[in-house]
Amino acid sequence: MTEVTKVQELVYELKLRDVMKKDVFSVAPGMQMSELREIFRTRRISGAPVLDGDRLAGIISIEDFIRWLSDGGKECRISEKMSKRVETFYSDDTLVHALNKMEAAGFGRFPIIDRQTGGMCGIVTKGNIIEALLKELEIDFHEEEIRRYRASHIFEDIRADKSTLIFQYRIAGELSEAGTTSSGLKTTLKRLGFHPDIVRRSAIIAYEAETNVLINAKEGKMVVRVEPAEIYMKIEDKGPGIPDVEKVMEPGFSTAPDWVRELGFGAGMGLPNIKKCSDKMVLNSTVGKGTCLEATVDIRQPQ
Amino acid sequence: MKLKNIVDLLNLEVRSGSDKLDVEVCGGYASDLMSDVIAHARERQLWITLQTHVNTAAVAGMKGLAGVILVQGREPEQDTVEKAGKEGITILVTKMPAFEIAGKLYNILNAEKV
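YS: structure for the whole thing
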């Protein structure tokens, strides 16, 4: 029942330009009727639009061709035998409009006209429509499947007094590599089926922390612990440390050098971003020893 | 509106992700600060920026943005194009300054809602 509703929704949502076949083989009005035999045979098509420039002049079908043969097959131009009164659609017509008209017309190949230019821009058959609908439904189904595979299921299946998943990442390299660690974590959390909001917040925390490590300490490590109730992240480095931990939490405060700022980093928003995304955050640092950031995202109640 | 329609209407040039133009764009965000984009840009928005370095692709990928528009005729750096290609991020360029392209994009997206 839901599938039917979904199809109905799509039929109203999708436009013909989303489903039409764009590279259409066409013939010119001045071509000879006898040339069609070869064209229809080799291309395995049963008809083609007749185009005068980009204007649609008519349609020539295999039925027109057979009629011409049985009338004696006297050589003439396609323009004399083609059907001139052609039903067309506009590219911004909806599928439901096209389907209704197809039903009434009793045939199934319609040239598509661009409303602005008036030229032909594609062709649509019932086959194209069905194909497009199936594709959309498949995408939908795939998303639904991912949603069903939740991390909580893992914990439900594990028989233990306490169960934890741990991922560890090494943070190192140039600033240009920022995002490697966080996108790894993001993919992992997504795969585990966490709510998109949880994934987003965890990835932001990881990205900002990773960037800070790369700018200030060059290298460090991140440990992520997934528990039934929370995602705990710990990012550690052995860098220069932070003299005033409270000061760095102020939005806009930054110690970043110019070259870092020029790249669009170091605006003093990293730690405030982390704080905004975490349910709990603790920053510890000793000058000359290093820095340790702990952030927790509650996974029981998505915001 | 689909990204490919926006590309046509605003005359944008595609530098990577030409196979990803089917995505539905749901808005835009203009900023040159990475943390600002990370904090405030939303999924499937188009990001207008002058930052051409590789982190642009990383941030766009992390936030699930519809694509990046580089302004003022700036070209993406080589490693940006490579990373964008690998992660399926669309990078577009325009000669227009940020103010102008943002204004046009805003109008297009708003006109569609009416």
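YS: worth flagging: DSSP finds five helices and five strands in chain B.
IM: good catch. Also The mean pLDDT of chain B is 93.
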